[in-house]
Amino acid sequence: MKIGILGGGQLGRMLLQSAANYPVEVSVMEKDPECPSAKLCHHFVLGDINHFEEVIAFGKELDALTIEIENVNIDALFELEKMGVRIIPRPAALKTIKNKILQKEFYKSHQIPSSEFHITNGKEELNDHLHFLPAVHKLATGGYDGKGVQLLHGKDDLQHGFDGPAVLEKMVPIEKEIAITVAVAENGTNAIYPPVEMVFDPVLNLLDYQICPAKISDKTLWKAEAMAIAVARNLKSPGLFAVEMFVDKEGNVWVNETAPRVHNSGHHTIEAHYSSQFDMLWRIILNYPLGNTHQILSSIMVNIIGAEGYSGTAMYEGLEDVLSIPDAFVHLYGKKETKPGRKMGHATIISNDHQELLHQANKIKHTLIVKGDKKI
């Protein structure tokens, strides 16, 4: 089958690595000829995934098309779907998730618990919601990896709000942040991965590391699984859906956001689970049986990001030391250029000893440093 991927970042790269196990011919479209996926696909097309005509030209001869980022031309996907190309996930589901206003309204309309919110169309409207603070202001479209998100604790923070369509969400007293990935086949059957607990860098607002399985009570687990399945079922689309949730101090669970694709919160599945999230998506695209989501061992995953104070050509310090750690697996994304906070790779450690996982994750975080050849 001829399959296309819109976007050529690290998610596309890892999809391509998994594609080697299947009878597929994969094309990638991306506007950066040096992107991580460029040299691993069968066909690389230089193009803009937001340009209607370019997406149509890329996809019209394919059997199926998927994404590695939501920021794509939805109208083109609807048109390709009319032309008979299978789009995973379906354009209607992607349209809902791509816009955070539509996403929040989706949760509300399907009675899926999510934090209270108001819609704002300009920065000046924030003054009408002072009583609602503290809250989180999120751009309706275009945000990713902590970008397009501002924490507003009080009136003095309003200047940091967004002057465009956005969602103002009531801040939840978070005990833990978790994520559950649900795989949905074309026939509607699903498979669910164990929950992961996510720990974020408070400065970069970027995933620092995550532990699987999350340490939560059975009652919280049942709630979270039911909510994740409800999100995936009501989107009415085959695909892979990573549902990020908050657990508050009273044990309530709230859906935060959903990613309709392979996701950072599922990278550990490459080594720690029988069927990785990348393998699972290929099974869905190719209409094969869903894979086994059970874990082989508990795991922790650490994001490897560009060090502060450096940019330019990437250089990896401490790589040999990390590779000498038993049961540690390093994935570098092939990005030539680094900058502070840029995702350059990840490392996964597997073990059923929780303290050992935490110890090795901390060791990797302080050993493997990505610097550029320019100080800034």
Describe the protein's architecture and organization:
- The protein is built from ten helices and 23 strands.
- β4, α3 and β5 form a beta-alpha-beta unit.
- 25% of the residues lie in helices and 31% in strands.
- It has three domains: 87 residues, Rossmann fold (3-Layer(aba) Sandwich); 55 residues, Dna Ligase, domain 1 (2-Layer Sandwich); 202 residues, D-amino Acid Aminotransferase, Chain A, domain 1, CATH 3.30.470.20.
- The longest helix has 17 residues.
- The model has no long low-confidence stretch (mean pLDDT 95).
- The strands form five sheets. Strands 10, 11, 12, 13, 14, 15, 16, 19 and 21 form a nine-stranded antiparallel beta sheet that branches.
- The chain is of the alpha+beta class.
- It is globular, with a radius of gyration of 20 Å.
Give a brief rundown of this model.
The chain contains 10 helices and 23 strands. A hairpin with a 4-residue loop joins strand 14 and strand 15. With 376 residues, it is α+β, with helices and mostly antiparallel strands.
